[in-house]
Amino acid sequence: MLASAGSVAADPSRVHRAELGGRVAWKAEVVADRTYVDRPMVYVAGPYTNPDPVQNTHDTVLEAGRIIEEGRVTPLVPHLTLLWHLVEPRSLEFWYAYDLATLARCDAVLRLEGASTGADREVEFAREIGKPVFTSKAELYAWVDEVAAS
Question: Following DSSP, what letter does each residue of 75-92 receive, concatenated?
């Protein structure tokens, strides 16, 4: 059964893509393992361009892996668009805009250490739209506890 847009709005975690006759439709279905769905989604902002995008992506993915293992939040790593950029290069401004659109859908931002114009823009944008920004996992996890308790 296909779900209408209105019926899934209340619980978007129940939505999956399905190919139907050459078009993409959305099918509502209960997600059996809600481990990552029920956690706050946290945008991981940090250096990308300098000194090296591949090394910075590597470092950020390792940090996201540690975050996943700690089991408190679901990290979103914008650096993973590195592969997309290798396949279909886009301008830096495109990636900034794309990342801000992604960030807007997250619950919070974790700003990693290191100089980064892009990450600084992301933090500024997050604050403008009322997203909490944290500079350490300890701060982030304290916020998670506070939100869970409320």
Answer: EE-GGGHHHHHHHS---H
> Which residue ranges make up each domain of the chain?
1-32, 41-149
41-149 has CATH 3.40.50.10400 classification: yes
The encoded tokens of residue 4 equal 């209408």
Return the H-helix or E-strand segment holding 53.
helix 53-70
Q: Note the pLDDT tens digit of each residue in 122-138.
A: 999 999 999 999 999 99
**What is the per-residue pLDDT across 54-69, written as a single tens digit (0 to 9) for each?**
999 999 999 999 999 9
Question: Residue 12 carries which side chain, given as an amino acid letter?
Answer: P
Environment class of 53 (CB within 10 Å of its CB; exposed 0-12, middle 13-18, buried 19+) = middle
Is the link from the previous residue into 51 a cis peptide, with omega within 30 of 0?
yes
Rounded Cα distance between 63 and 54, Å, is 14
